[in-house]
Amino acid sequence: MTTSPTGACAPLLQLDRISRRRAGRAAVQELSLSLQPGQVLGLLGVNGAGKSTTLSMIAGALRPDSGSIRLGGIDTREQPELTRTLLGWLPERAPLWAELTVAEHLAAHARLRGLNGAAQRNACTAAIERLELQPLARRLAGVLSQGQRQRLGLACALVHRPALLVLDEPANALDPVQAVALRGLIREQAAAGTAVILSTHLLAEVTAVCDRVAILHDGCLRHDGPVQADDHQALERTFFEIAMHGDAAARAA
After folding, report:
1. Cβ contacts of residue 25 below 8 Å, gap of 6+?
2. Segments of the chain with pLDDT less than 70
3. Ordered alpha helix ranges (H), 30-173
4. According to the model, what pLDDT value does residue 253 have?
5. What region holds the ABC transporter domain (predicted)?
6. Given this model, what pLDDT does residue 244 score?
7. Which pLDDT belongs to residue 250?
């Protein structure tokens, strides 16, 4: 864990005025955010607000048109390999190879993160056990249900014990029991010092597990503040004011 010259804990993740255009329009505009180790940030916004584009830039799948992203104090544009070792990413649709088994997926992801030999085997075993994938270990990914695919994608994101976990709609296709287990896993990761970004449409997920919430609208940051676990209605009001009124709500805040 790095510290600033004053002794304060330095952010694990720092976004400095990042922007990105997609399909001829500004998908993200001048976005600045920071995240500390062990902090859980909820990322909210209506469809098209820029959430997935933001997460793709953090994960290194897209390059910002301008601005910078620092992970562990290092500019990811200068050292893109950082994303393979420090970051675990679960996109909205987990990218899986239909012809590989669950166990083979985890071994491949572990190798991509630099794990080999006993370290790789131990990491894969731990991920399979944590996500309760033991009965599916030899099953091909192509025959998994959508919920099982989502759990495998999460296991692949966690296999190397990343410092930053980026989750894009992770509760998609999970049943209620699995959704509760996901909340427990997020809390467990945060307690161990992992920073988590959770993008979701479910306000209840944010109030259940997040310390902070950031709300995007038209690619711009409209709100960034702490989450009060017992005040779901306040977050709901803020979200819908921004979603319905955009710039006017932001100026009045």
Report:
1. none
2. 1-8, 246-253
3. 51-59, 82-86, 102-112, 117-130, 146-158
4. 45
5. 13-243
6. 85
7. 46
| Cα dihedral 76/122/172/72 (nearest 10) | -20
CATH number, domain containing residue 158: 3.40.50.300
Domain for residue 2, yes or no? Answer: no
Residue 4 lies in a domain: no
Around 51, how many Cα atoms within 13 Å sit in the side-chain half-sphere?
25
17, 14, 113: which is closest to 72 by C-alpha?
Answer: 14
Domain count, the chain: 1
The pTM for the full model equals 0.90
Whole-angstrom distance, CA of residue 31 vs CA of residue 217: 11
Through-space distance between the first and last CA atoms of the chain, rounded to whole angstroms: 34
The 10s digit of each residue's pLDDT in 87-113 is 999 998 888 999 999 999 999 999 999
Beta bridge partners of 220: 217
Strand pairing report for 13-22 and 66-71: antiparallel
188 and 131 in contact (C-beta within 8 Å)?
Answer: no
